[in-house]
Design a protein that fits this description.
Blueprint: E1 2-5, H1 6-22, H2 26-38, H3 42-61, E2 71-79, E3 82-85, H4 89-103, E4 128-134, E5 139-146, H5 148-152, E6 155-159, H6 164-179, E7 187-195, H7 197-207, H8 219-233, E8 248-258, E9 263-270, E10 277-280
Parallel strand pairs: 1-3, 2-4, 7-8
Antiparallel strand pairs: 2-5, 5-10, 6-9, 7-9
Length: about 280
């Protein structure tokens, strides 16, 4: 059994907050660079170049890629052989968010009441924390800030099993088409299929963490990802909604076993600032 003081978790999360909001992941940057070469619209190419220049300036100066520094979403893999000491895990996580958003001069976007007073919490807490218990004596932390614009364009639908692949594809295309320029394309489209309402939406968000260009290990699902990406890019929405072939950089599908009577499908859209960073302690 390995003892770990929760202050270590706080310190790591503080650092991750700043890194995630200021440094675009290499896979996303590479996908954007490839899109510049492939984009047929001159305006679309210019916008993609501006997005890349913005990311370059952000990283050089350690300033946010986007003014919306998001809801702090944490994916935590907690080794079953770790004994946490020194305090409460959730308190330690939120203290890390509090310090990181203050120290990095990151915008605080969270209100403590979602539909009545809507008073800002002032420190971007509480975080959304998804915890899994795994073998071993390590803790893996993934921090994925999620902006409001792209989250607002996400959707869930309870399809019938008979709707099948065609129904799934039609729903994904409908969601992306309806979103149009609102989520700041080019986007990454996370799709969750199966499970229950909460599981399918979680799977859709987890799908956004997969590196751009890496397909589902199931060849049939990978083929659907490729087909959907092509069909989405044929919608003509283009970079920032000004037209072109680069509406999405990737479509990532994650699945979960379903009830015999159900086919839940969730679409979680991520803007071009697809921010996430991880650490293992």
């Amino acid at each position: 059994m390995r003892e770990l003081n929760v202050e270590r978790i706080t310190s790591v999360i503080e650092k991750l907050c700043i890194e995630a909001n200021c440094i675009l992941p290499p896979d996303v940057k590479k996908a954007l660079e490839n899109s510049v070469r492939e984009e047929v619209s001159p305006l679309g190419r210019d916008i993609l170049k501006d997005i890349l220049k913005n990311a370059e300036v952000a990283e050089e100066n350690m300033i946010p890629i986007c003014q919306d520094t998001g809801f702090a979403v944490i994916f935590l893999e907690l080794g079953q052989d770790v004994k946490l000491v020194g305090g409460n895990l959730n308190d330690a996580i939120n203290e890390g968010i509090r310090r990181g958003y203050a120290g990095g001069y990151l915008r605080k976007s969270i209100v403590d009441d979602s539909f009545l007073i809507r008073k800002n919490t002032g420190d971007n807490t509480p975080a959304v924390v998804h915890t899994r218990i795994v073998p071993g004596d390590r803790i893996k932390i993934i921090l994925a800030p999620k902006g409001g614009g792209s989250e607002n364009m996400s959707a869930l639908r309870m399809l019938k099993p008979a709707d099948g692949v065609t129904g799934i594809k039609n729903f994904v295309l409908e969601v992306v088409d309806k979103a149009g320029p609102n989520p700041c394309p080019p986007v990454i489209v996370g799709v969750g299929i199966g499970g229950t309402i909460e599981i399918t939406t979680l799977k859709a968000k987890e799908a956004l963490l997969r590196p751009v260009g890496q397909h589902n290990s199931n060849p049939e699902i990978a083929q659907i990802e490729k087909e959907l990406l092509e069909e989405i890019n044929n919608l003509g929405i283009g970079p920032q909604g000004f037209g072109g072939k680069t509406t999405a950089l990737a479509v990532n599908i994650e699945t979960f076993p379903a009830h015999i009577a159900s086919l839940p499908v969730a679409v979680n859209i991520q803007c071009h600032a697809a921010r996430h960073v991880e650490a293992v302690i």
